What does this fold into?
Amino acid sequence: MELVRAITLTWLFSGQRSNEIARLRLGCIRWQHDGAPVSGDSEQILAQDAVCLLDVPAHKTGTAFTKPVDPLLGQAINAWEALRPHQPKRTDRRTGEQVNFLFSYRARAVSSGYINSTIIPMLCRKAAVPASDVRGNITSHRARSTIASQLYNAKEPMTLFELQAWLGHRSPESTQHYAKISPNTLTKAYKDAGYFARNVRTIEVLVDREQSNRERQRPANPGSTTIWGTASAPTRSSSSARTDVLTGRRGDTAACPRPENDGVQ
It folds into this structure.
């Protein structure tokens, strides 16, 4: 059970490919606190946020490197190492070295297909969920892409170059396939940008400015109270007065005779 649990948590939280998980070495977990190495069974220090480091062997896109992982993963691996029986070294086909593989039992290393053939079907049965979804079959690579997207969309997200280093990619172009922005992150970024509110405010300002320009360009009405006229009694609008002149109606003009030379024919 400790072997199965260690492999499962490594698949879920290490962000490594299945063949890289199968090639992990004995002693690949290291603990540090304040930059100094500590023992993995030091419970008092681990409670104070010790850093768990995973040593990843050379892989298809780069050389060996070290990455931080969740302490839960480190504790599961330490629990398996405490029970792992002594076994002879085996040859790493990629590097040609004689090494002690971490996930090995009875002198047989776990194959790279063990997660797809055993771990994932077992977990799906236990959780009563189908082994496939709209994206297709759930494979060992699903966890790598999922955790990469989660790290990129976290509350304090990793940058593209930090995620590249954590995944072990040689170029950022490869990382971009994993760094997918979630709808929630995209929505928050859109709200923070304030595009809609800023443009609505701009439209309001332009409308107010256009209205003000029209007011300035409107001819002064002698009978209205504006900044151009000082008469206290408002009269009918210029359009109404123009209509009366054209139709021959006198309206209120009898009480207010117009000048002889008013320009109206």
User: Anything to note?
Assistant: Residues 191 and 197 are 9 Å apart (CA to CA). The longest helix spans residues 195-217.
